[in-house]
């Protein structure tokens, strides 16, 4: 029986995903990749990119935060923000933008105790935001930096002022306001006029403005981070 000759493979088709051929006569190397292999690599790449985006996002541009600019330290850190970082920054920016805490204080019209209430509420909101960060994202250096900065804004920005001034001012203000509301001295004053009579009003006001300006810079930085490509 004569030997069986394998049927030739039709032109333009291949049974291999990857073939390499060397033509010694022309000194050329030919690499052939199957369409199935290319499709598989494309699908796998898309899955990896989708995973990175869904579980934290990705960025190709660095973002820098100078703690001295915000008044809570002297360090600078540069990182590539992911989706979680931007979500935290966005939530903080919204809170700072919709409360008195992140807006300039106008002592002719604002009531100091109301500003203090806003500052105190921001403590709770920021704690909730930090606690709400997914555990699998906290290990990222960039996310840790955002969390650390937010905590330092509370502990090194707000807390020192509140510890020094809030209780003293509230006690004096409530007593003084009640006195004027009852017309004890024959004069009824607005809350803004009452608070201006605080014995150390200029010192309190200067320190409040310092904290307020730092918080405004913090709000702007969070907004920049949100808009970062």
Structural class based on helices, strands and sheet pairing: mainly alpha
N-to-C order of helices and strands: EEHEHEHHHHHH
Low-confidence stretches: 4-14
Shape: rod-shaped
**What percent of the residues sit in helical stretches (DSSP H or I)?**
55-70%
Task: Trace the largest sheet across and list its strands.
Answer: 1-2
Strand content: 5-15%
What count of domains describes the coordinates? 1
Question: End-to-end distance, in Å?
Answer: 73 Å
Q: Radius of gyration, Cα only, in angstroms? A: 32 Å
**Largest sheet: number of strands, sense, barrel closure:** 2 strands, antiparallel
- Look at the structure and give the mean pLDDT: 79
What is the tally of helical segments? 8
Strand segment count:
4
